[in-house]
């Protein structure tokens, strides 16, 4: 299994002067915390690719120190994140995508990879009403769609920013036209795939996680992952 960590954006809402993935939480960068969680999940550094963009040299140097591969996304300044997906050549192997600004526990990766489905998306039911959250509409275990604008009455929880894709090549082919859409995100690709692939939501509240978009998020992360 391969791992893709998109970390190309500026992170303007956080207001940091460095890439978000290099921000420290309790003395460790978010990048090094990704590596620790993946090692605990049984995934070695040789399987991990970090997609760079803003201040690419800084992120690449940190990746090199940790033994990780870094690939540059020339479209990093576009508003969407999905262009980072196409930096990695398609293969028939499975792929775990983890947002670069996420802090998370290893059990999320272990659990997502074990569940059936062409695509598995962990969903936290504790945060189903946040207007800014990427909310998930779920029928049974089937993921219908992801949307921030989803009516709260249809929200089963928040997508955590982790996507397990059982066959990288299939979603690459299915979503190829999104590569030219500058505002496309990973959530758009999942929604597109839901029509023809088995797309499953894993609803779980067992794990600690935090996506760091704002100073408030960073403060919460430093409490949760102290």
Short description:
This protein has 226 residues and is α/β, with parallel strands linked by helices. It has helices spanning 30-40, 56-66, 106-114, 168-174, 186-193, 215-224, and strands at residues 2-6, 24-25, 28-29, 48-52, 69-72, 95-98, 102-104, 119-124, 135-139, 142-147, 158-159, 162-165, 199-203, 209-211.
Characterization of the model:
By secondary structure, the chain is α/β, with parallel strands linked by helices. It has one domain: Spore Coat Polysaccharide Biosynthesis Protein SpsA, Chain A, CATH 3.90.550.10. Helix content is 25%, strand content 25%. It has six helices and 14 strands. Strands 1, 4, 5, 6, 8, 11, 12 and 13 form an eight-stranded mixed beta sheet that branches. Strands 2-3 form a two-stranded antiparallel ribbon. The chain is globular. The chain starts with a strand and ends with a helix. The mean pLDDT is 94.
């Amino acid at each position: 299994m391969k791992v893709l960590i998109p970390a190309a954006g500026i992170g303007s809402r956080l207001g940091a002067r460095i890439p978000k993935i290099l921000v420290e939480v309790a003395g460790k960068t978010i990048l090094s915390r990704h590596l620790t969680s993946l090692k605990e999940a049984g995934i070695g550094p040789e399987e991990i690719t970090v997609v760079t963009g803003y201040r690419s040299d800084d992120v690449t140097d940190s990746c090199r120190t940790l033994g990780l591969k870094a690939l540059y996304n020339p479209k990093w300044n576009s508003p969407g994140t999905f262009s980072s997906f196409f930096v990695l050549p398609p293969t028939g192997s499975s792929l775990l995508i983890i947002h670069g600004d996420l802090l998370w526990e290893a059990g999320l990766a272990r659990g997502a990879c074990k569940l059936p489905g062409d695509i598995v998306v962990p969903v936290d039911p504790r945060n189903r009403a946040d207007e800014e959250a990427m909310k998930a509409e779920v029928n049974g275990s089937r993921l219908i769609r992801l949307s921030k604008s989803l009516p709260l009455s249809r929200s089963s929880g928040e997508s955590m920013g982790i996507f397990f894709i059982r066959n990288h090549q299939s979603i690459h082919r299915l979503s190829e036209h999104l590569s030219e859409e500058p505002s496309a995100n990973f959530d758009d690709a999942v929604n597109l795939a839901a029509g023809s692939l088995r797309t499953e939501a894993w609803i779980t509240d067992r794990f600690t996680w935090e996506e760091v978009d704002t100073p408030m998020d960073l403060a919460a992360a430093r409490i949760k992952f102290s």
